Amino acid sequence: MDSEKLNQQWHTICTQVMSYPDMDASQVTAFFSRLEPQAMSDSFLMLTADNDFIKSWVEQHYVEPIQRALLDLCGIPFTVAIAIDPGQEARKAAAAAGSSPSGAPAPAAAPMSVPGSPGATAPASFPAVTPAAGAGTPANPLAAALSPTNAYPAPWPGNPPAANPGALGNPSSSDPAATANAPATPTMPPWGDAGGGAPVNGTPAAGAGGVHGTEHPAAPTADAGAEDHYRPQPPAGAVGTSNPCSAYTFSNFVIGSSNRLAYQMAVQVAEQPGRSALNPLFIYGKSGLGKTHLMRAIQNYIGETYPHLRTVFVDADSITNEYAEASAAHDREKSSFKNFKTFYEEADVLFIDDVQKFQGKERTLDIVFQLLNTLTSRGSQVVLSADRAPKSIGLDERYQSRFAAGSPVDIQPPDIETKLGIVKSFTDELCRSEGFGHLALSNDVQLYIAEISGSNIRELKSAITKVAFYQTSMGERGDVTVEEVRSLLENHFSGGLSRTVTVEDIQRAVEEYYKVSHSDLVGPARSRTIVHPRHIAVYLCRQMLDMPQGDIGKKFNRDHSTVIHSTRTVEAMLEDNMEVQSDVERLMKIIRES
Ligand SMILES: Nc1ncnc2c1ncn2[C@@H]1O[C@H](COP(=O)(O)OP(=O)(O)OP(=O)(O)O)[C@@H](O)[C@H]1O
């Protein structure tokens, strides 16, 4: 189910829950705004919560009404599972930073639109929960746990808690999960020594010597006297260096051939921020392959190992919005822009996620470009991520070369061993975090989940969660079988179950579609009528299968460079050729349904 449909379904469920007379609409609104739907299928709904407190509260008070709503709406009983998503707060904060007016504390962003209280004529967004009026402290622990200000773990420089009456303190104090998940000093094996697919527990030597950068960075100057000063909001997920906010660490990152180089470079940067040639470190790859995980792992490692260094984590949208706010206020209030610049320039390590979103934003690019120059020339580390290589982002050449200066590294879709490693390690993690005790998924089931999943590890993890909850709900009835997992996950992966598709299936479909013979498709012929279908077939293999490029090449009697060339050729055509777009869509449908 795509996320738009899922959000609509969740919206309907929320409406239904609020329609029950025993429900307090404002309470429901407050708590449900801290949930996000992750997956829904025939009898299963999976949600994630900001933190452990919200999870427990919702489990105790709202799972039953949600189940009642699902029964009323769908006519069948549902299992409702809630997990904790450590990245949720940061994403909400990013959205909040993007929409908050200048100078106002950013409210927690609503993850989706939900109905207002009963009687409201039109659906409203979930209102952010406001702290007790006029109070610097929450009225009760519940308010503290729900407070949107909890999204920001560290005080914003130049905007200390005392100057911010809404601040309710550090979320980690009310978030046992965050504390429990704080990374132990990560460990790693010797270079290249990580077995394919196995979780890694080794330690980078911390003795990196002195690190360039400010030992005790001064807070940027903020003119506390003027009330309408531009006060940039803390960037999404910005953390104080000694206050890691994420459970993403090197030790729970599973290494395989698809991500080993990226992992090794990330460790190198974490060990010696600003001191290696990897500056900026640019990590790219498709969605859900672990880019943010690696960036957060670097940040957490630095927070543990070099607590005097100040790290700043922000995504491209947030910094764009902050810059727009700062520059808009610039004429009126000169300190606005200065505060914005100073905040970033004083970072010892700056992380910018999703830099492809800078495309077309020339003014922001310009300021980011200056910022990168300032930071890297001073010896501060910069880490960037994107969903594609710098040269494919469509940027001016000087930006491209700035981004690519520290040898960009990609993460490829995981192979089967890596996926199996993730199934095993994430099952163990769930046992610990969800208190499942010993959760034994048979080897067949584990392998089956790894085989049918696509390349998106986020989807793989939610599939494991679903199976794990199903197995625990079975109680004495025995272990979940491969057959049960098959029907449980039938509609789970956005690309369908990938096990059924092979290179041969794709070749057959393309041959029939374009009326070319198999010997021509995989043979030496170079006429356009053969080369085009060949490019398309290779492209489809890259899109639909988790196979290394070299292996795909072999199936076409070619090497990996042909695979790269064919993929790029089709990607370029897809940008403006509607006929090719529709051919590719139809072929994917034919192949999936064959
Ligand atoms: N190698 C890995 N080992 C363990 N977990 C992983 C690995 N790669 C990704 N994940 C998990 O998959 C999920 C998605 O990862 P992440 O958010 O880092 O992806 P991303 O590449 O940044 O995606 P996007 O571009 O959509 O933001 C996270 O839960 C992350 O922990």
From TrEMBL:
Domain annotation AAA+ ATPase: ranges: 277-409
Coiled-coil positions: none
Location (main, coarse): cytoplasm
Quaternary structure (record): Oligomerizes as a right-handed, spiral filament on DNA at oriC.
Official protein name in the record: Chromosomal replication initiator protein DnaA
GO CC annotation terms, alphabetical: cytoplasm; plasma membrane
Family under the similarity heading: Belongs to the DnaA family.
Domain of life of the native organism: Bacteria
InterPro entries recorded: AAA+_ATPase, Chromosome_initiator_DnaA, Chromosome_initiator_DnaA-like, Chromosome_initiator_DnaA_CS, DnaA_C, DnaA_dom, DnaA_N_dom, DnaA_N_sf
